């Protein structure tokens, strides 16, 4: 049987249990795969055929309940590590069940134990979507929604002054009603005297209203945070070291993860485009956040380093290259790393550079 002690002794990098030499590669891979899932929709789509007793990716709500992540486990417990702010664990076999909230498990700092309360929600979707919409309280915030969340998720209720989940323009849940028609277009919002401040960046999007082209460094940082990126990531950390009004790309260019991300996927342009809008910044940073769960390991590793945590799984994508891989701007760092690991030095005449190796196979350079 799998248990916490068993998994604590697993060695993800080599896949061998220290004491018994038992191969745990599949378990390690499953834990890592589940941790990459950052939306309930992703977890649900992977569990359409999972039965109650099978292990797989469950769902853990965290923070105030509007956020969560995937975690490897079965019907009775989690096997992968849980976040310190975890609230509830929904086992993989019941994620798609209408009784999911009745079967959820209460989580503490280090473990999750079963409970029987429903907390008033009738589905996992409801317990996630209601808090997500309730985070915002200005009708005008809707102009940013399509860049940071699923389009059409939240509508504004004038009597309550709050957003609620909607379906076809009407309130979606009885627990989040509205006694009038929902406003679904920000251009039709009533005039409001309510103003936000920087400390409310995550409960209202008011600070973004003052961000216009050319975007300042602080506006880019705020957009990155709003899209889901952490100050622990290379992106925001590098932006903080940049000048306030220009040259945002300079500090990032020295980061391998940035160069790889720019070569592997739709590149960031808002760091250099002086005509970029705040909506464009939100959309591009949201794409980066989404790319942390990319099926392409090179893209996901670079995006996680940039958006979530610097050096998280650093260079893990180099495991995917082979002798026949063609050298490009995105993978030259793997070839250079391999050369240095063999005792070579950057000053060596044979040190691989993009100018000498681009277009060649790894084995040829």
Helix-strand blueprint:
Elements: H1 4-8, H2 25-35, H3 40-45, E1 56-62, E2 67-73, E3 86-90, E4 105-107, E5 112-114, H4 124-134, H5 142-148, E6 154-157, E7 162-167, E8 170-171, H6 217-226, H7 234-240, H8 248-253, H9 256-264, H10 278-291, H11 297-307, H12 332-341, H13 354-357
Antiparallel strand pairs: 1-2, 1-3, 3-4, 4-5, 6-7, 7-8
Helix pairs in contact: 5-10, 6-7, 6-10, 9-11, 10-11
Largest sheet: 5 strands, antiparallel
Rg, rounded, reads 23 Å
How many domains, as an integer? Answer: 4
Strand-pairing-aware structural class:
alpha+beta
Helix content: 25-40%
Measure the end-to-end span.
47 Å
Number of helices: 13
Q: Care to count the β-strands?
A: 8
Strand content: 5-15%
The order of strands across the largest sheet is 2-1-3-4-5
Instruction: Give the ordered list of helices and strands.
Output: HHHEEEEEHHEEEHHHHHHHH
Coarse morphology: flat
Low-confidence stretches: 1-20, 193-203
Mean pLDDT: 80
């Amino acid at each position: 049987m799998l248990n916490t002690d068993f998994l604590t002794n697993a060695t993800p990098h080599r896949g061998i249990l220290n004491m018994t030499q038992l191969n745990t590669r599949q378990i390690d891979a499953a834990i890592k795969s589940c941790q990459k899932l950052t939306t309930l929709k992703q977890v649900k789509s992977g569990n359409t055929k999972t039965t109650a007793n099978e292990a797989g990716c469950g769902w853990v709500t965290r923070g105030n309940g509007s956020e969560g992540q995937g975690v490897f486990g079965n019907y009775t417990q989690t096997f992968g590590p849980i976040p310190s702010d975890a609230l509830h664990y929904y086992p993989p076999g019941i994620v798609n069940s209408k009784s999911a909230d009745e079967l959820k498990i209460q989580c503490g700092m280090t473990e999750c134990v079963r409970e029987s309360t429903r907390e008033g929600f009738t589905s996992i979707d409801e317990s996630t979507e209601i808090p997500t919409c309730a985070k915002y309280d200005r009708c005008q915030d809707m102009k940013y929604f399509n860049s940071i969340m699923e389009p059409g998720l939240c509508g504004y209720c004038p009597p309550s002054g709050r957003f609620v989940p909607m379906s076809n323009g009407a309130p979606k849940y009885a627990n989040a009603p509205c006694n009038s028609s929902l406003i679904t277009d920000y251009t039709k919002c009533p005039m409001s005297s309510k103003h936000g401040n920087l400390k409310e960046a995550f409960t209202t999007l008011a600070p973004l209203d003052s961000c216009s082209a050319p975007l300042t460094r602080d506006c880019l940082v705020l957009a990155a945070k709003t899209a889901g990126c952490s100050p622990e990531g290379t992106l925001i950390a590098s932006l903080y070291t940049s000048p306030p009004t220009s040259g945002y790309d300079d500090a990032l260019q020295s980061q391998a993860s940035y160069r790889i991300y720019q070569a592997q996927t739709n590149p960031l342009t808002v760091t250099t485009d002086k005509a970029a809008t705040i909506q464009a910044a939100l959309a591009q940073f949201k794409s980066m956040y989404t790319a942390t769960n990319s099926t392409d390991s090179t893209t996901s590793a670079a995006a996680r380093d940039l958006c979530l945590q610097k050096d998280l799984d650093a260079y893990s994508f180099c495991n995917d290259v082979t002798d026949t891989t063609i050298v490009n701007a995105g993978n030259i760092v793997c070839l250079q790393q391999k050369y240095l690991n063999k005792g070579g030095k950057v000053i060596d005449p044979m040190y691989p550079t993009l100018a000498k190796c681009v277009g060649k196979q790894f084995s040829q350079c």
